[in-house]
Design brief:
The protein is an alpha+beta fold. 20% of the residues lie in helices and 31% in strands. Bound molecules: calcium ion.
Length: 330
């Protein structure tokens, strides 16, 4: 009897382990490239040899603070060398936090882009960039309904022609994205994994908010074309609202080569493109909240009028039915 129970316990434990194993992400194949990685101790690692910092960015021993929790800050860190790797995976360990639990912003961006080390108003870097931008957006600017909650991770592939529309939180030009509650996570390692397989034109993003090696899918898109030879960067910006935007570490893995007929130099000539992106649309202002309230009010009045007419018709039909049945009775 006792043996039977233990057998069941072992079977259940085995089942739980199998489930957990499916959620765990193993280290990617390939090897880590130190010149494109950032690790502690940050101040003693000759970080400035490989990386250029600007604006409000401040480097301490255990984090790179792109902005502090103060208004009107803008800072960046960019690789000095371009990345001539076709298939790669990045594990970016970060922390977004601040003193205000209700009002905070605006978020930070990860870049694989041609425009490096330049100020701008898209999370601290220039608009009309050429490459990949991943926006960790903590403030919902859109003055209306979103199909998603914030914080939101939004992905844009741009050949330089598109503009990032803050008023729409970039949704009108995005390739895709996901809600992720990465802000204000205390005592946990929040990591995002960004994998780009140039050989397969495939971009995959997963995140692990609590640092428990449990990965959630954010985006998995095929048809994503990015050239080699672009730069890696992170930048952040605060406006009236603020937050600390901290990069803790970054690991860049060059993935094992897969067979490919193309000459490696051809990859530098590609134009950034993503077939799954939203078509670019003209900016249209949101309706003011008062107008939207008025619209709801109008529909409510129409509903009340229909209800009143329906009730009156029902009442008269009922009265007529009563009179007719009385006539039949007598
Ligand atoms: Ca926003």
């Amino acid at each position: 009897m006792a043996v039977g129970i233990w057998k069941d316990v072992i079977l259940i434990l085995g089942f739980v382990l199998v489930i957990n194993a499916n959620e765990e992400k193993t280290e990617p194949g390939g090897y880590m490239r130190k010149e494109f990685s950032i690790s502690k101790p940050l101040t003693g690692n000759n970080i400035f040899q490989s990386w250029e910092v600007g604006g409000s960015t401040f480097i301490s021993n255990d984090h790179i603070r792109l902005t502090s929790d103060n208004p009107s800050q803008s800072g960046y860190i960019w690789s000095r060398m371009p990345v001539f790797v076709r298939d790669w995976e990045i594990h970016l360990h970060f922390s977004v936090h601040g003193s205000n639990s209700r009002l905070f912003g605006d978020g930070f961006a990860f870049w694989y882009s041609a425009q490096r080390a330049t100020d701008g108003n898209v999370f601290g870097s220039p608009d009309h960039f050429r490459g990949l931008g991943i926006f960790f957006d903590t403030y919902a600017n859109q003055n209306g309904e979103h199909s998603h909650e914030h914080p939101y991770i939004s992905v844009q592939v741009n050949n330089g022609s598109m503009s990032y529309d803050h008023d729409k939180d970039g949704t009108h030009t995005e390739l895709g994205g996901c809600t992720s509650h990465f802000r204000g996570v205390e005592d946990a390692d929040t990591v995002v994994a960004i994998r780009y397989l140039g050989s397969k034109k495939r971009l995959t993003i997963q995140f692990d908010v609590e640092g428990e090696n449990i990965w959630s899918d954010c985006l998995d898109e095929e048809g994503v074309v990015l050239p080699t030879g672009l730069f890696l960067g992170m930048s952040a910006q605060t406006g009236d609202l603020s937050d600390n935007h901290d990069i803790i570490s970054m690991k860049f893995y060059e993935l094992d080569d897969e067979d490919d007929d193309k000459d490696p130099s051809e990859y530098t000539l590609l134009e950034p493109n993503a077939s799954g992106s939203q078509p670019d649309r003209d900016h249209v202002d949101d309706k003011p909240i008062s107008t939207r309230r008025q619209t709801v009010m109008n529909w409510f009045i129409v509903f009340l009028v229909i209800l009143a007419i329906g009730s009156l018709v029902g009442y008269f039909v009922y009265q007529k039915h009563q009179r007719d049945s009385l006539k039949r009775f007598y």
